[in-house]
Specification:
The complex is a heterodimer of chains A (326) and B (175). Chain A has 326 residues and is of the alpha+beta class. Among the domains of chain A are: 5-50, Uridine Diphospho-n-acetylenolpyruvylglucosamine Reductase, domain 2 (2-Layer Sandwich), CATH 3.30.43.10; 222-325, Enolase-like, domain 1. In chain A, 30% of the residues lie in helices and 20% in strands. Chain A is built from 13 helices and eleven strands. Chain A has helices spanning 12-20, 32-37, 73-78, 80-85, 87-95, 99-104, 107-111, 118-121, 163-169, 187-190, 270-274, 283-293, 306-325, and strands spanning 5-8, 24-26, 45-48, 57-59, 65-68, 173-178, 181-186, 209-215, 222-228, 239-248, 251-260. In chain A, the strands form three sheets. In chain A, strands 4-5-8-6-7 form a five-stranded antiparallel β-sheet. In chain A, α5 (87-95) runs antiparallel to α9 (163-169) and α12 packs across α13. The longest helix of chain A has 20 residues, at 306-325. Chain A is globular and about 60 Å long. Chain B has 175 residues and is of the alpha+beta class. Chain B folds into two domains: 2-77, Ubiquitin-like (UB roll); 85-174, Orthogonal Bundle (DNA polymerase, domain 1). Chain B is built from six helices and five strands; from the N terminus they run ββαβββααααα. Chain B has a five-stranded mixed β-sheet, sandwiched between helices. In chain B, β1 and β2 form a beta hairpin. In chain B, α3 crosses α6 (153-174). Chain B starts with a strand and ends with a helix. Classes of the chains: A alpha+beta (326), B alpha+beta (175). The A-B interface holds A 1, 3-6, 8, 26, 29-30, 33-34, 37, 46, 48, 50, 74, 77-78, 83-84, 87, 90-91, 94-95, 97-101, 103-104, 232-234 and B 1, 17-19, 21, 40-42, 45, 48, 54-57, 60-62, 64-65, 67, 108, 111-112, 115, 119-123, 125, 128-129, 140-142, 144-145. Chain B: It holds the Pfam family Fer2_2.
């Protein structure tokens, strides 16, 4: 690991100031320290934000939930309100990593974790995300876990989070503070697609710190998180579907769906949801939604299987959700 | 930089490079070599310790970031003269082959039993709202952060289940 300066922030403005001057935020550190040991990331300074007062989960005035950015993945998964009213989020969190990691990993850090593309991790390989302009070894390489939606000719990395997929389906918003003040944005607007600058992953400016995630009131209907992976536990998603579906009188009345393992960000396509509204649950209905989801899907060899797998996973998720919601 | 941590009940003051992880501080600065370095990347669980009562991978934690925290290592759980029930159970049930992953397995198992007692669900729990029953499947899922290259998993689960049963019996007797 390269040497770095370490400072502990006492206030969010102190943290923002230090980060604006070049320091990297340290929260749980489970991804950052891993990358620093490999020298994939080599920050000259860390600003430790773990002592900031961002550890609470609170009800909002709108009957939703405000989740402090430093709430650990374990505490969020186990929170009574989340278990009772946002089970898709509990399930997504519990499907990710291990208890040891979830006890350290934070809400804000989970959103900002880096891809697990093997070429991003291999400092001897070409990678436009790690080292802009060097190319992308994944295009012709071992791209089994990589993206089939939203990628570009410069990068096919996937966003690895399960938590963010559930939050996207729930319509979460992200609250930030920075040197220029704070803002609130839709989780979907936090991320940037790779285009020709895959090294720039979010819209956050230098020094801008995620302070909370806000969930709207619990949605009507059944919730589930279906994750398909290479082994039964402790593996990233090949495909995952976070779903919230309501059914009345034999017709789907609302559907909120987000997808993991397919794209450089937790993926949501409102046209997929619109196609389901008013329809009776059936394989034809689900396949029509999958057609829309996968219309622009593009495989790169090893990951071609993800396209039919995504269709089958969506079918399964919708069938189970519609049965439970009916 | 100055870092003060409480390890197995004793306050320890250390002067460390900011790069030093809790794992390296325990092993190299404090001579507590019971905590093992396996992968050093949070994948194997050999370095599992308790921080403020919760299990973490000590290889992915900067000591500086844990200034003021309370740490429990395998040395604080039991001694050769006074073994922890999990240590006894691992011996009785032959829950290892080479033994390298064992301290991490035992730290993780102790935390796991406490988590279940607190009602934490897991990915394989059928519901999120009932107290979990630690079936073999639940134990396997909850211990998935601890790898055993000798693949002693069946005996590891047996050893943990034995302690689960003993604690359940004690709890029932108290009720």
């Amino acid at each position: 690991m390269r040497p770095f300066d370490y400072a502990r922030a006492d206030t969010t403005s102190d943290a923002a100031t230090r980060a604006a001057a070049g320091a990297t935020f340290l929260a749980g550190g489970t991804n950052l320290l891993d990358l620093m040991k490999l020298e994939v990331m080599a920050p000259e300074a860390l600003v430790d934000v773990t002592r900031l007062d961002l550890h609470e989960v609170e009800a909002t005035d709108e009957s939703g939930l405000r989740i402090g950015a430093l709430v650990t993945n374990s505490d969020l998964a186990n929170h009574a309100t989340v278990r009772a009213h946002y089970p898709v989020l509990s399930r997504a969190l519990l499907s990710g990593a291990t208890v040891q990691l979830r006890n350290k990993a934070t809400t804000g850090g989970n959103l900002l974790q880096r891809t697990r593309c093997p070429y991003f991790y291999d400092t001897a390989a070409a990678c436009n995300k790690r080292d802009p302009g060097t190319g992308c070894a994944a295009m012709e390489g071992r791209n089994r876990i990589l993206a089939v939606l939203g990628a570009s000719d410069h990068c096919i990395a996937t966003h690895p989070s399960d938590m963010a997929v559930a939050m996207r389906a729930l319509g979460a918003r992200v609250v930030t503070e920075g040197p220029d003040g704070g803002r609130e944005l839709d989780l979907g607007d936090l991320y940037r697609l790779p285009g020709d600058t895959p090294n720039i992953e979010t819209v956050l400016s230098d020094g801008e710190l995620i302070t909370a995630v806000i969930l709207p009131p619990p949605p009507a209907g059944a919730q589930s998180y279906v994750k398909v992976r290479d082994r039964a536990s402790y593996a990233f998603a090949l495909v995952s579907v976070a779903g919230v579906v309501a059914v009345e009188d034999g017709r789907i009345t609302s559907a909120n769906l987000a997808f993991g393992g397919l794209a450089p960000m937790p993926w949501r396509n409102e046209a997929v949801e619109t196609a389901l509204i008013g329809k009776a649950p059936s394989t034809e209905t689900f396949d029509a939604a999958a057609d829309i989801l996968l219309a622009d899907a593009k495989g790169h060899g090893d990951n071609d299987f993800k396209i039919p797998l995504a269709r089958r996973t969506l079918r399964r998720a919708l069938r189970e959700l519609c049965e439970r919601a009916a | 930089m100055d870092v003060t941590i409480t390890v197995n009940g004793t306050e320890r003051k250390l002067e460390l490079d900011p790069r030093v992880t809790l794992l390296d501080a325990l092993r190299h600065e404090l001579g507590l070599t019971g905590t093992k370095k396996g992968c050093d990347h949070g994948q194997c669980g050999a370095c599992t310790i308790l921080v403020n009562g919760r299990r973490i991978n000590s290889c992915l934690a900067l000591a500086a970031s844990h200034d003021g925290d309370e740490i429990t290592t395998i040395e604080g759980l039991g001694t050769p003269e006074n073994m922890h029930p999990l240590q006894t159970a691992f011996v009785t049930h032959d829950g290892y082959q080479c033994g390298y992953c064992t301290p991490g397995q035992i730290m993780s198992a102790e935390a796991m039993l406490r988590e279940a007692a607190e009602g934490w669900p897991s990915y394989v729990s059928k519901t999120l709202d009932a107290d979990p029953t630690l079936t073999d499947e639940e134990i396997a899922e909850r211990m998935s952060g601890n790898l055993c290259r000798c693949s002693a998993y069946p005996r590891i689960r047996e050893a943990i289940a034995a302690v689960r049963d003993a604690r359940n019996a004690t709890k029932e007797a108290a009720e």
